[in-house]
Amino acid sequence: MALAATFAPAATVAAAAAPVPTVTEIPAAAGKGRPVGSTVVDIAARGYQEREFLMSGLADTYQKVGTWTSSGAWGARTTGTQQAYTTRLLVERPADPARFNGTVVVEWLNVSFGVDIGIEWSQSHEQYTRAGYAYVGVTAQKVGADKLKSMDPARYNQVSLASDALSYSIFAQAAQAVRAHSATLLGTGAPAKVVAGGHSQSAGRLATFANAIQPVTPAYDGIMIHGRGAGAAPIGEGFIALPLTARIRTDTTIPIFQIESETDIGSFSDARQTDTSRIRTWEVAGTSHADAYGLAQYDAQNARDGAINGGRPIVCDKPPNRMTWRYASNAAYHHLDRWTRGLGAPPTGPQISMLFGNVRRDGDGNARGGIRLPDLDAPLATYEPTNSGGEVTGACLLLGATTPFSAARIGQLYPTRQAYVTAFTQAADRALAAGHLLPADRAEAIARVQNMPWGATR
């Protein structure tokens, strides 16, 4: 954090340090007896445990300094007005402290559908748990806090966030709490690295955090921005003029990793920028903003909690996208962790190919270019970035679609089962060599296709 602490760009005023927030554990049996949004993953089988805490403190608000342009070199300062808050932290941590690898992933929980959703956890919990990360999900925004109280008033009666203008300070203080209260939150000593992550709506807020807040309130050792559009989020409430396109500031002193799905490219392409020693962007072909893998977890949580749509599952006109975006997400977190430790920048990746604002596609309808995971480079289906239908407005649009190839087309591509397994293995090896696929995921992927019922596929 020393580099960030010495950073002083023009037109930026350093913020006074906020008091260290307090943390208190929520008793497991409080209220309905489980956290809202509690993971549906069997983490005990992975040697992990879930705990939940209240975090309380005084949050700052921020305001713009100077003109904000598409460069992302944004000046900001605190307003001098602090407000009391209490929010919750949802923690997934190794049951055995000796398994902790020293890195904490702090996720800005997504509230696009009016309730906290841990999208980064849903996609990359396999990587977190096998590699020994600790994970902290932060209720940073008012709608998420209010939903907690409405769903379980007894458990969350103390939760109170006045407005989203406090969200940036609250998220910065979450990193502060992780370091100051590691024994309570993590069951370990102080972490070596604390990295931020967030998806979609949260990614837009992290873009603003990286460009305007981190330089004046150094909080994180690295930031993962997942699935954002070309813009960013406002710094306060009410109308605040923002550039339509927001790149990441090139004078960032911490690593910033952006990973984009094919769904996101239509908007995000306007904010493309050259990779640097501190900025990396991956565009993952064939993937959608959300997918079948994550949806299975959201549906199970929602059936239990009844947070959205009366607890009913999301059903779209077509089967949701089954591309393995999580493999790229896992690799990205692995590389971000190494990057923050001074062990080298992540590998680069080609951009998804576009022509006149549209994704270029092959004869099967799959995207050209981009980072290519084995399920796309040895395909059995067309992987589409959008879908339609469903009871929840906007959900299916983001979930993408899978249209299996005909038996005749599969036979043209892979005359035998072994021909497919060979093609898939070669594709996995290419992704592994490029650094876009981790060895554990390569092994899982190849075992999956080797055990696939080939007759049913054809």
Structure, explained:
By secondary structure, this protein is of the alpha/beta class. The protein is built from 15 helices and 13 strands. It has a domain at 2-254. The strands form 3 sheets. A 9-stranded mixed sheet has the order 1-2-3-5-4-6-7-8-9, with helices on both faces. Strands 10-11 form a two-stranded antiparallel ribbon. Strand 8 (256-261), helix 7 (262-268) and strand 9 form a beta-alpha-beta unit. Helix 2 (119-131) crosses helix 9 (325-340) and helix 13 packs antiparallel against helix 14. It comes from Actinomadura craniellae.
Q: Which oligomeric state applies?
A: single chain
For the biggest β-sheet, the strand order reads 1-2-3-5-4-6-7-8-9
Order of helices and strands: HEEEEHEHHHEHEEHEHHEEHEHEHHHH
Mean pLDDT: 94
Strand content: 15-25%
Shape field: globular
Q: What radius of gyration results from the CA coordinates? A: 22 Å
Q: Tally the helices: what do you get?
A: 15
- Number of beta strands: 13
What percent of residues adopt helix (DSSP H or I)? 25-40%
Structural class: alpha/beta
Return residue spans where pLDDT drops below 50 for at least 5 consecutive residues.
1-16
Separation, N- and C-terminal Cα atoms: 54 Å
Q: Characterize the biggest β-sheet.
A: 9 strands, mixed
